[in-house]
Design a protein that fits this description.
By secondary structure, the protein is an alpha/beta fold. The protein contains eleven helices and 14 strands.
Length: 310
Amino acid sequence: MISVSNLTKKFGNVIAVNNISFTVRKGEITGLLGPNGAGKTTTMRILTGFLAPTSGIVSVGNYRIDENPTEVKRIVGYLPESVPIYGDLTVYDYLMFVQKLRGISPNGRLKQTAELCGILDVMDKKVGELSKGYRQRVGLAHALIHDPEVLILDEPTSGLDPNQIVEIRNIIKEIGKKKTVILSTHILPEVEATCERVIIINKGEIVQDGLVGQLKTSFGNETVVKISVKGCTEQELASALSSLVGVREVRRGEGAPDLVSVEVRLFSNTEIRPEIFRICVEKGWVLYEMKRESFALENIFRELTMGGES
């Protein structure tokens, strides 16, 4: 459904996207992840025809963007991070306006789309009077009103409260049953809950691409034990733990300022918690916290985009 080959985008001397290639199959929900400035939004704007690439080939459906931009825009729905909607119109008038721009008959998909996006109860309200959650829904309805085959969402839950995030997430999952969806987000649990596949981009280049489950499995031979201790220095704690069998690395962790906190990264599923407890007892250190967890998507993201820095 979407094919990107050797895509590069430059802004002057700055390379925002650097020779990336990927494909997205029909009916797939794909998460595009990366830190700020990684090139996610630039890539999405190119996919929608909003920006022209410096080089490379981008196809959506059966159309190349450089050859058939109008046809691509006809089959793509786009929700940018900042929703560009007219606040002085009612929701009904705004969506009727969008339908007219799209060449859709007045009795087209308005009611069906409004119902899917959960905005039937605010159709008579002005867009500018709505909460951010409802404005985001209206923007989503705008992107869906012409029944596109592909939906591209840039930070669709940015600035929403937890309840609104869950509601938008459920709408996206429902849409994904019939359409190809690409979404960018900084909320990693949202990717795990919504997406089947993840593409991680950093400094304009793809650093990981695969199914969420496979990605976690590929890093799954590593376990992390997070501990917080009082009564020693970070160097003393790291030195004592590094000597244990199965420890790959000890990194600085996050914890209370009056405690020494580290993350102990293990090979496979090695169990070292009894040994950690024994060391603390022998040395007279006070163990405040010890938590074992598998390598979650957040850890994978940090590993791939921070260059292994703590």
